[in-house]
Specification:
About 15% of the residues lie in helices and about 30% in strands. The chain is an alpha+beta fold. The chain folds into 3 domains: about 100 residues, Peptidase S8 propeptide/proteinase inhibitor I9 (Alpha-Beta Plaits), CATH 3.30.70.80; about 325 residues, Rossmann fold, CATH 3.40.50; about 140 residues, Jelly Rolls (Sandwich).
């Protein structure tokens, strides 16, 4: 086993599997692309990203059960028995193996707020001749707002022969479209904002065609979905824009993660991706400390009652050397752990009130920075001790060093406290992709009447940036988000196969939702209009147009803010 080729999180999961078998992978299923076997015959499998030579031939790995989904490229996705990670790590062409991680899903008044009707009346643009791709929870193919405009659905959650981009899932076209269903409803709502055709709740690009990917939210499969949409559009000689109203924080927050790199490699003239900034604006999931040479700091975080596991994802400069330790609420402390470059960088510590695992490898070859990973679990059947924990970090190198850490517990309720908590850098993958247009949420409506005629109100400030919208910049100081668009409260299409509370429903076909998930398809639809006008429009040119026509209230055009980006879009002069 070449331990140094496995990213810290994947290595930790592999260690748990070797020590505890299938039982050790239960908590890793969501975070590390683990597919546990349902019986004793089939092996536990994992979805991973492989970093390798661009033209490397990896077809011979099939003999070990390693199925690589692409024949070329520096970053590819693969599906393999977890035991085969050993063999894969020994492959000379493979530089790094990173896990697939499961991400989270993130129109009546809104268009007028950004002068969209005036722009569409002036230009006559409708999105005709453009493909809108939506990678999400699926779509309701029977909804009249999409009648005759869905070209295909790749349902990655169903059993089937797959598509060119991956030998899994099932593709549906024409009359077979109705086989796939959106039981969550998020994807249907998103698609309606981007291009729904209803006369009352009209989407931004009502004549665009749709290519839909119903995903299981593993980012490796999301990457395959992006490839699929662009390939289908290319075969039809049509430009395409892909909507990704989803995200996660198990990355470096600098655009070097696997999904972001694939997005950057796939985009170009007539191929654009729009991503949600995220909805963690009110959550202290990010901690930061600046540590002088020889100094040590404690970064406090709170663990609520009944938490079963906590993960911490830390990053700092590859020029520095930090040592890591954990202190429990009861005062028990793990030893300082240095960077380990020879052998396995994973170490286990059994405290009297918890089990702690720390992974401290050498610098990540993708971005050159250090990534450490911490896992904390209760002892045996006991839950994790709640209360104030402390991540202890000591600087063993000469320069002053900044460390950034994100909490990754499954519930999203483990948060930094005190001086460690920093209300920025909460845009994760894929919103940190350099080529992506990353969208913040602006509140255009704070009250509405539901299907029962009851007045519903939300605690957001009208005509202002939504307080839940995640802040930038990225860890490398790249300016994100790009722009803000209407994201609360937005009326759009409702899936007939999903269940919603009456308070969210307007009628039997439409409902209200809020989030950067809703702001993103607004921009996706807008990009579809611009692609109709210029089918060779590049991501960079699209960003320049949006930045030029966006502003923060009371500030000059071109002003950037970590919450607003370059401000709310004004489409009138696009």
């Amino acid at each position: 086993m070449r331990h140094e080729k496995l990213s810290p999180g994947l290595l930790l999961a592999f260690e748990d599997y070797q020590r505890e078998g299938n039982e050790g992978l239960v908590t890793h299923k969501r975070s590390l692309g683990i597919v546990a076997s349902k019986g004793i015959v089939k092996p536990v499998r994992s979805m991973v990203f492989i970093y390798c030579n661009e033209q490397a031939d990896l077809s011979h790995l099939e003999q070990y059960g390693i199925r690589v989904n692409q024949d070329a490229g520096e970053v590819r996705t693969a599906y393999l028995p977890i035991e085969a990670l050993d063999q894969l790590s020994e492959e000379s062409a493979v530089v790094r193996i990173k896990p697939s991680r499961k991400m989270s899903l993130r129109m009546d008044v809104a268009p007028g707020k950004v002068k969209l009707p005036a722009f569409k009346n002036k230009t006559g643009l409708t999105g005709k001749g453009v493909v809108i791709g939506v990678v999400d929870s699926g779509i309701d193919p029977n909804h009249p707002a999409f009648a005759g405009r869905i070209l295909s659905i790749w349902d990655q959650t169903m059993t089937g022969p797959g598509v060119t981009e991956g030998g899994y899932g099932a593709e549906f076209k024409d009359k077979q479209l109705t086989v796939s269903r959106d039981t969550d409803g998020h994807g249907t709502h998103v698609a309606g904002i981007a291009g729904g055709g209803d006369s009352t709740y009209l989407g931004v690009a009502p004549e665009a065609k749709f290519v839909i990917v119903k995903t299981d939210l593993q980012d490796a499969h999301i990457a395959d979905g992006v490839r699929y949409i662009f390939r289908v559009a290319q075969e039809m000689n049509l430009p395409a824009v892909v909507n990704l109203s989803l995200g996660g924080h198990a990355d470096a927050h600098d655009g070097s993660d696997s999904l972001s790199k694939i997005i950057d490699s796939q985009t170009g003239p007539g191929r654009i991706v729009c991503c949600a900034a995220g909805n963690e604006g009110n959550d202290n999931i990010h901690g930061q400390a600046v540590i002088g040479s020889g100094e040590a700091v404690g970064m406090r975080f709170n663990v609520p009652n009944q938490s079963s596991i906590v993960w911490l994802n830390g990053w700092y400069s590859g020029k520095s050397k930090l040592e890591i330790s954990l202190r429990s609420p009861s005062g028990f402390v793990s030893p300082w752990q240095k960077i380990i470059t020879n052998g396995n960088p994973t170490k286990d510590y059994t405290l009297l009130d918890a089990k702690v695992q720390v992974v401290t490898p050498g610098a990540d070859p993708v971005n050159g920075d250090h990534n450490f990973f911490v896992q904390i679990k209760g002892r045996g059947p006991l839950p994790l001790v709640p209360g104030g924990w402390q991540l202890r970090v000591r600087n063993a190198s000469s320069p002053e060093t900044r460390v950034d850490v994100w909490t990754l517990d499954p519930t999203g309720s483990v948060l930094f406290t005190g001086k460690a908590a920093l209300d920025n850098m909460k845009i994760g993958s894929p919103g940190c992709a350099g080529s992506a247009i990353t969208v913040a949420s602006y509140t255009t409506k704070t009250e509405y009447k539901d299907i029962d005629g009851s007045k519903q109100q939300v605690g957001l400030k009208l005509d202002d940036i939504s307080d839940f919208s995640s802040e930038g910049p990225l860890r490398n100081n790249t300016q994100k988000p790009d722009v803000a668009a209407p994201g609360a409260m937005i009326t759009s299409t409702m899936s007939a196969d999903a269940s919603f509370d009456h308070s969210m429903m307007i009628n039997s076909k439409f409902m209200v939702m809020a989030g950067t998930s809703m702001a993103t398809p607004f921009v996706t639809g807008l990009i579809a209009l611009l692609l109709q006008r210029d089918p060779k429009l590049t991501p960079q040119a699209a960003k320049a147009i949006l930045h030029k026509n966006s502003s923060i209230p009371g500030k000059p055009v071109g002003t950037f803010d970590i919450k607003w980006g370059f401000g709310l879009i004004n489409t009138e002069n696009l």
